[in-house]
Specification:
By secondary structure, this protein is α/β, with parallel strands linked by helices. It contains seven helices and 13 strands. The protein has a nine-stranded mixed beta sheet, with helices on both faces. Strands 3-2-6-7 form a four-stranded mixed beta sheet.
């Protein structure tokens, strides 16, 4: 395949998000969610060719995920619905006791239990994707650690792709987590999930981004941590998905003028991060993690 646009391949959490106002029984919407799912959808909205790699099922939830992807021009060539599971995340929006809009997440499987039904790729599936994929992505994005996803990251790294790792936590397999950090070019994480940043200070030529919500973010590339203030938004409706918009917008900014981190200056990083934060802040004025895409 040949494309005129930038290409991002992604693997990790791709779910069906169900948006409900607290106290109501009828969902407002069903749409693709999860960190990886949101980034794939948002980058497609920004003009990228995106190829999620997922192991879903053939239930109505899996069908809804595929339909939403196709509706937003996301390529589904590597989305299997044969032997996986489709995670369902219920987002309940409500007004807290201080009068501020907020939300909570519920994780449900098809039996109604509070459990994230997620099946990572197998090594066999990863090898099949590598064999079938006749192009090299500009970026490989992943948010979960597994042998198969690590294999994909290492393969795409060897072919020259920028590797973007956004872990939700360090997880139980610390050794594999460290190996994924080693292969990554960019590692982005929330201070709520990973507070200890000293472990990353000895790495060279890797960009680490620690988001801090309303406080802004810290970043590190070779020479100490630097802080950037957040971008104010006086019309916050829903903060869900703001981090995913920030990640996608940063990737998009990074590839507007360059093809990676090689030779990038602190000023260029800060410009890209500030632009990404503007997009993330703007997304909070719309209901749902990808509400801003409906404009």
């Amino acid at each position: 395949m040949k494309f005129d646009n930038n290409i991002c391949v992604g693997a990790g959490l791709i779910s069906l998000d169900v948006l409900i106002w607290d106290g109501q029984r009828v969902p407002i919407s069903y749409y693709v969610g999860g960190t990886c799912g949101n980034v794939m959808m948002i980058l497609s909205y920004m003009g990228w060719e995106t190829f999620p790699i997922a192991r879903l099922d053939g239930t109505k939830d899996g069908v809804r995920v595929l339909e939403d992807m196709k509706r937003h021009n996301v390529h589904t060539d590597f989305v299997s619905t044969q032997d996986g599971k489709t995670p369902v995340i219920v987002q309940r929006n409500f007004i807290n006791k201080y009068g501020n809009p907020t939300h909570k997440f519920e994780l449900r499987n098809n039996m109604g239990r509070f459990y994230l039904d997620f099946k990572s790729l197998t090594l066999k599936q990863a090898n099949e994707v590598i064999e079938k994929m006749d192009f090299v992505p500009n970026v490989f994005f992943f948010d979960r650690v597994s042998p198969a996803i690590q294999k994909l990251a290492e393969t795409f790294k060897g072919k020259g792709a920028v590797i973007f790792f956004e872990p939700s936590s360090r997880g139980r397999d610390v050794k594999r987590f460290n190996q994924c950090v080693e292969v990554a070019d960019i590692v982005k994480f929330s201070d709520q999930r990973i507070k200890d940043v000293e472990r990353f200070e000895d790495y060279k030529d890797k960009l680490f981004i620690q988001t801090q919500g309303a406080k802004g973010l810290n970043y590190h590339l070779n020479s100490g941590w630097k802080h950037l203030e957040s971008i104010a938004n006086d019309k916050v409706v829903d903060t869900a998905g703001a981090g995913d918009w920030t990640a996608a917008a940063f990737i998009n900014e990074l590839f507007k003028t360059r093809k990676g981190l090689s030779g990038i200056t602190a000023a260029e990083i800060e410009d890209a991060l500030n632009e990404a934060q503007k997009v993330g802040a703007a997304s909070c004025s719309y209901e749902g993690a990808r509400g801003m895409m409906q404009l």
